[in-house]
Design brief:
single chain, 316 residues, alpha/beta, Spore Coat Polysaccharide Biosynthesis Protein SpsA, Chain A, eight-stranded mixed beta sheet, 8 strands
Length: 316
């Protein structure tokens, strides 16, 4: 038997935490009874600088039952860094980890199949949503479009997969070797390699609380993923610039021909449109290039992605 650690990033999750802890405990006890995992397996909540009673509840859960552990970050670092903090903190104590969100929209019954695939030799098992029936039509279309755009721009991500995944200790060691500060785990994990597989599940509704990813945050996260994994936006600018240069050559030839023919009057509309179009494209190009320069700036500083303030474990 192998040891499994569940890693759950938490930000202001006091409404869902008691029920989440109850359901996960039942799942772990079920797996232990089937002798799929050892009794040393644990449930680890990572407090990402919550402003409510999340850490207080995690501390109480740990006191009541040592199967619950807690990692408290020194400040809010965002979902991806909080998840990484949990994985790196526990990787020396387990054979495999499964990461999932605290709202349990990801069906925990898929954990059984993930563990089975681990025993079949998989180092990474992706939880993939088979349906988005609980999402609004707008969110469903934008989410599916997001994965397609990511693929188009050269980012190798698993379609309809978020951060619900199993990783072996070997895969976690591989993940640790990635040093980038601008972290996007959905794109980094497939780069590790090793044998992988997928498990399909139906996404559930929130049983309490609200989504931590409103539209504005989702768009920011999408842009983070694209610029962290691909340089195609810059190459697209180069291609666009080449096309505009080609059009300018054509317009130059056209203007010379019109001059020879004696038609020297030029409409102001085409001039104004050209100025606005080229000016807008230049600002867009500078903005995209600036985004990449900003990421280089942050990477060069090599600031820590997270700082653990306290780790509640069996040894505490």
């Amino acid at each position: 038997m192998k040891t499994l650690y569940l890693v759950i990033p938490c930000y202001n999750e006091e409404e869902v935490l008691p029920e989440t802890a109850r359901q996960l405990l039942a799942k772990m006890e079920h797996l232990m009874a089937q002798e799929k995992i050892t009794e040393r397996s644990r449930i680890v909540f990572v407090n990402d600088g919550s402003k409510d009673r999340t850490w207080e509840l995690i501390t109480q859960l740990h006191r009541d039952n040592p199967i619950y552990q807690g990692v408290n970050l020194s400040r809010n670092r965002g979902h991806q860094n909080a998840l990484l903090a949990g994985l790196m903190t526990v990787k020396a104590h387990c054979d495999m980890t499964i990461s999932l969100d605290a709202d349990l929209q990801d069906d925990i019954d898929a954990i059984d199949e993930m563990v089975e695939k681990y025993y079949e030799g998989c180092d990474v098992v992706y939880g993939v949503r088979s349906a988005r029936d609980t999402d609004t039509a707008f969110k469903k279309k934008t989410a599916e479009g997001y994965y397609k755009v990511m693929k188009l721009l050269g980012a190798d991500v698993v379609f309809n997969h978020a951060d619900y995944r199993l990783m072996s200790r070997r895969a976690l060691d591989g993940l640790e070797s990635f040093r980038e500060v601008n972290l996007f785990l959905r794109g980094v994990v497939p780069m590790i390699g090793y044998k992988s597989d997928v498990v399909y599940y139906a996404r559930k509704e929130h049983f309490a609380g609200e989504s931590k990813y409103p539209l504005k945050k989702m768009l920011s996260f999408a842009w983070q993923g694209i610029t962290s994994l691909s340089v195609k936006p810059i190459r697209m600018i180069m291609l666009l610039g080449s096309l505009i240069f080609l059009v300018s050559i054509i317009m130059l030839i056209y203007s010379v021909i019109r001059y020879i023919m004696g038609a020297t009057e030029v409409g102001w509309t085409s001039t104004v449109v050209s100025i606005w179009a080229i000016g807008g494209l230049q600002l867009l190009a500078i903005g995209i290039i600036g985004e990449y320069i900003g990421k280089i700036y942050l990477e060069a500083k090599e600031r820590p992605k997270f700082i653990v303030e306290q780790y509640l474990s069996d040894e505490n």
